[in-house]
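Reopening this one. Same input as before:
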Amino acid sequence: MSCHKQGTTCDPNILFFNDSKNLKQEKDYGKSILIHQRAQQPDLYYALAKSSGEIDIDEMAERIQRSSTVNWADVVCVLRALHTEMIDSFKKGEIVRLGNIGSFYVTLRSNGVLVQKDVKEGLIKGARVRFRPGKEIKDALKTLDFSKYKPESSEGDKTDPENPKPKPDPDDGDEEAPDPTV
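Same output, byte for byte:
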């Protein structure tokens, strides 16, 4: 049993195992089982983008209408036609380049094989559309401001270790409030 790591030559006696934490190589001495030993690495946390909302085609058309001489209906019509033309282009194997916006192209997910002539359609697991931004969008991304997400609750969030829920004050709470009419 052997695996092939994309872009490398493969000795059939070496197995590659990638658990997304580390890459481990083991010699296969006639055994069909690879013993995996997890590296002693701490779990890592990564920053993620948090959306502040979303915009649909109607809102995008409204914004474009306000900043141009084209009316809303024409903008929607053009965006829907763009959608149709992009699908047709992907079916033809074409890359869709939209000037300074960027390029859309199809990539494939497939099983790997050791010999090029063994590559066939049946190995394909699926297709995806990828986007490569143009220079102006890349430059705009460099100017983004980043800050740590803070929950809207002012009392804290028990899931946020830097802002736990406050402990109850023993002097507050279970007592009856004074009657303001007295």
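So the earlier flakiness isn't reproducible anymore. For the record, Confidence is low (pLDDT under 50) at residues 1-35, 168-175, 177-182.
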